[in-house]
Specification:
Radius of gyration of chain A: 31 Å
Number of domains of chain B: 2
Structural class of chain B: alpha/beta
Largest sheet of chain B: 5 strands, mixed
Number of strands of chain B: 13
CATH class of the domain at 148-214 and 249-361 in chain A: Mainly Alpha
Number of strands of chain A: 4
Number of helices of chain B: 19
CATH topology of the largest domain in chain B: D-Maltodextrin-Binding Protein, domain 2
Shape of chain B: globular
CATH superfamily of the largest domain in chain B: Periplasmic binding protein-like II
Order of helices and strands of chain A: HHHHHEEHHHHHHEEHHHHHHH
Strand order of the largest sheet of chain A: 1-2
Oligomer: heterodimer
CATH topology of the domain at 148-214 and 249-361 in chain A: MetI-like fold
Strand order of the largest sheet of chain B: 2-1-3-12-6
CATH class of the largest domain in chain B: Alpha Beta
CATH architecture of the largest domain in chain B: 3-Layer(aba) Sandwich
Number of helices of chain A: 18
Radius of gyration of chain B: 23 Å
Structural class of chain A: mainly alpha
Distance between the termini of chain A: 49 Å
Helix content of chain A: over 70%
Shape of chain A: extended
CATH architecture of the domain at 148-214 and 249-361 in chain A: Orthogonal Bundle
Chain lengths: ~400, ~425
């Protein structure tokens, strides 16, 4: 009895000590944050200006103070009687708070600030005193968008990406069905087919850029085999002369977007294939057996027995393919930078190009494009969330 | 920075009695070129400056050029250095208009070098009648050509448009594409446009166009495009230019498949790397088109500026005055193979491109910065896309020019 009592009181004592310490720490951190934030003025108050190079540690010290304040606040909160009574309700929110904070700071707030920028003409600069140079112009940016042929090109290209990228799903399924067999070394073949998905998009873009190159790339070489001959030029070097000029896939407005989409499909097919391969592992052999007894085979078997069982994989494949199509930014950046003359832009790239890229600096206009893109995405996202919500409710 | 305990103590005591700026001797300089040559030239200049001013404590931040373009938008407001490198012309305009650069007209009026020896470049450093920076280097543009091919076909350096067309036809007949170019990153096409425009209409029209005072559908600009069309339609440019960068475009030039290149002097290093014997390459200024128009040249400059939020503007001015000295600029530009903006600087007499470039530029009636530095960025982007489209399909000329008029009316509002 006595031993136990001592232990409890001991624990209480350490807890009390912790609370007192956390309280003190919180107070110190907050005071520092609010009153002593400006290191330079603090230094001048204390008369130690020479000790502090104000340019470097200011941000770092603030960060340390902020983290200190958060940790001590956390310790204080979990020691309150209110928290102890409602622990089950409150605990998840404490853990969520970190993620939520970042989500709000880096996702929610930027969405609203960029919508607000879209009503201004702004070159992204602030004056020496920190005030923004933005000028309110109402819906002017949107009116300009409506008249901007580049905007329609980007919108059309986005649509092309969405539609043509869907090809990855049937092709991925085909390859998965083909690879879903047991022969020697099948694992090697599977990994080889999966390989492009492992490579970075930027590298895929570069590889295809060289592949399409009409003079020294694969396309050029194959074309050269049929239509070109080599001859000696005026200074005695070898040069190629073609009876029909090779196609400049990335250099001509009418082919360039298709060229990039094909490059993008390469890793996307691999992704869909792997989704279907895992899906095929889970297809129940009983049902196949039953189907076979009923005389189903070939197309009928696939259509009525296997595909329905692959529905979860298909749903996932559609989702990642749509996301992939909307994420096409890095391919475009590495292969054409939106060119020739803006013909391969998609909304995401056009937005970057107008606001940040190459110092064009039309932040207001770029934000208007971002807002339109957001509105389009919102349709897809709401459908997706609704579908998930429905599935979950049915599952319950 | 290091202080002994004693000096800290003394400083503490001193600061208790009087308010002295603690950073009087510190000078922070942001520079934007990590390429070996420019980096070396910059560091040598800093060393010389330190030797001349031992009491100034110089800190240097040298970053990559593209990163600098992004970073400058933040650091001018939030964490300004005392000196930063940037570009004159319209590239400095947004910063000047937002009040982020220090007006240094006083320095231009008092410094003996800036007062008298920078006359050619002064207009590009001027906005609203005031000067904002000090240029440390610039380079000429013109036509670089394969001298061996020209000699073999008996072509002399063309002096007029007709001679250029005739030379191009002769080259074509002999299986050589007259011009190489790579328009993937657009600005190279603007170089050709600028030159044809400067020679067709002159310096004033170039300035008025980039300042938004003339429309793109103006008959004078149409005339420029017609001249350009003449070259394009005869197949004077390499066909797959839209997928090549300016470096890629050196390949046909090096191989002898193309004979001329409208370029800036920084490309000479590229010819060397591509394995061309520089004895086989030479330079001539872009030939005359409309007779009697004073010859203006493209000569983009790089410069140093003092941010409005700089802490040590006094020493920053000392540094700018140091940069403007003829010796400093001579040594600097000898290292990077470009032209010193101070007309009293010595140039490297062994470099034929520098000698010809200096001659071309110092006798020019006016110096243009470059289409994408003279025009506002949003206009330049649309304009250069238009030029690239035009080079791919000249039949779209009217459509392109009308489109550029629309952009112009929005950008210059």
């Amino acid at each position: 009895m006595t031993i136990e009592n001592t232990m409890v009181s001991h624990r209480n004592e350490t807890q009390m000590g912790m609370v007192a310490f956390a309280g003190a720490a919180l107070a110190v951190c907050l005071i520092c944050l609010f009153y002593l934030v400006d290191i330079e003025s603090t230094a001048s108050i204390l008369g130690i200006e020479q000790l502090v190079d104000a340019r470097v540690p200011n941000f770092f010290i603030r960060l340390v103070l902020l983290i200190g304040a958060l940790v001590s606040a956390f310790i204080l909160i979990i020691n309150t009687a209110f928290y102890k009574r409602n622990r089950i309700v409150l605990a998840p929110w404490i853990f969520l708070s970190v993620g939520l904070t970042f989500f709000i700071v880096y996702v929610i707030i930027p969405i609203f600030t960029s919508i607000s920028y879209s009503f201004t003409r702004w070159n992204g600069l602030r004056r020496a005193d920190g005030s923004s140079t933005a000028e309110w112009i109402g819906l002017e940016n949107y009116r300009m968008l409506m008249e901007d042929p580049n905007f329609y090109t980007s919108l059309w290209n986005n649509l092309l990406w969405l539609v043509l990228f869907m090809l990855a799903i049937p092709i991925g399924l085909g390859i998965a069905l083909f690879l879903n067999q047991t022969v020697t070394g099948i694992r090697i073949y599977k990994s080889l087919f999966f390989f492009p998905f492992v490579i970075s998009q930027v590298v895929v873009g570069l590889i295809f850029g060289w592949f399409y190159e009409p003079t020294f790339g694969m396309v050029g070489e194959i074309w050269g085999f049929f239509f070109c001959t080599e001859e000696t030029n005026i200074v005695g070097n070898v040069r190629t002369v073609c009876s029909v000029d090779p196609p400049h896939i990335l250099g001509e407005a009418k082919y360039a977007t298709y060229g990039i989409i094909v490059a993008g499909l390469w890793p996307q097919i691999a992704y869909c294939m792997i989704l279907y391969l895992t899906g095929l592992n889970n297809v129940s052999p009983d049902q196949i057996e039953a189907g076979r007894l009923d005389g189903a085979k070939g197309w009928k078997m696939l259509r009525h027995v296997i595909l329905p069982q692959l529905w979860p994989a298909t749903f996932l494949a559609v989702v990642v393919t749509v996301i992939g199509a909307l994420r096409s930014f890095d391919m475009i950046a590495t292969m054409t930078s939106g060119g020739p003359f803006g013909s391969t832009n998609v909304l995401a790239y056009y937005m970057y190009d107008q606001a940040i890229g190459e110092g064009v600096g039309r932040y207001g206009y770029g934000s208007a494009i971002a807002t339109v893109l957001f509105a389009i995405m919102l349709v897809y996202i709401s459908y997706f969330l609704w579908q998930m919500y429905k599935d979950e409710r049915e599952g319950r | 920075m290091k202080f002994s305990f004693k000096s800290v103590l003394l400083g503490t005591v001193a600061s208790a009695f009087m308010s002295v700026s603690a950073f009087a001797g510190d000078l922070v300089i942001n520079f934007d070129d990590l390429n070996p040559g420019p980096k070396k030239a910059f560091e040598e200049a800093i060393e010389d400056f330190k030797k001349a001013n031992p009491d100034i404590n110089v800190t240097v931040n040298n970053t990559d050029r593209e990163a600098h373009k992004t970073a400058i938008r933040n650091f001018l407001t939030n964490d300004a250095p005392d000196i930063t490198s940037w570009y004159p012309g319209n590239r400095m305009a947004p910063f000047v208009d937002a009040g982020l650069f220090e007006d240094i007209t006083d320095l231009w009026e008092s410094d003996p070098n800036l007062k008298d020896k920078f006359a050619a470049i002064k207009p590009t450093m001027t906005r609203d009648g005031k000067q904002w920076g000090v240029p440390y280097t610039f380079y000429q543009w013109g036509i670089y050509y394969r001298k061996d091919i020209f000699d073999k076909l008996g072509i002399a350096e063309p002096q007029t448009w007709d001679e250029l067309i005739a030379a191009s036809e002769l080259l074509k007949e002999n299986g050589v594409t007259p011009f190489t170019i790579g328009t993937k990153f657009l600005w190279t096409a603007a170089g050709v446009f600028d030159y044809i425009n400067l020679r067709t209409n002159g310096y004033e029209v170039h300035n008025d166009l980039t300042a938004g005072k003339i429309k793109y559908t103006d008959p004078r600009i149409r005339k420029t495009m017609e001249n350009w069309k003449q070259l394009i339609d005869m197949g004077a440019f390499v066909p797959n230019h839209a997928t090549m960068s300016w470096q890629d475009a050196i390949a046909p030039f090096a191989n002898g498949d193309a004979a001329m290149y409208v370029m800036g002097n920084f490309s000479v290093d590229g010819y060397k790397t591509a394995g061309i014997d520089l004895d086989n390459v030479d330079f001539f200024p872009f030939p005359e088109i409309t007779p009697g128009i004073p010859r203006a040249e493209e000569a983009p400059a790089d410069a140093f500026f003092i941010p409005a939020n700089a802490k040590n503007k006094e020493d920053a001015r000392k540094f700018l005055a140091f940069v403007a000295q003829p010796d400093t600029l001579a040594k600097w530009n000898a290292t990077i193979g470009q032209l010193p903006p101070n007309s009293a600087s010595e140039i490297n007499q062994d470099d034929k491109f520098i000698v010809q470039g200096f001659d071309t530029v110092s006798n020019a009636a006016g110096l243009a910065q470059f289409y994408d530095r003279d025009a506002p960025a949003a206009m330049a982007k649309a304009g250069m896309e238009g030029f690239q489209q035009f080079m791919l399909d000249t039949s779209k000329m009217d459509e392109i020019l009308e489109r550029l008029d629309v952009v112009q009316s929005e950008v210059y509002k």
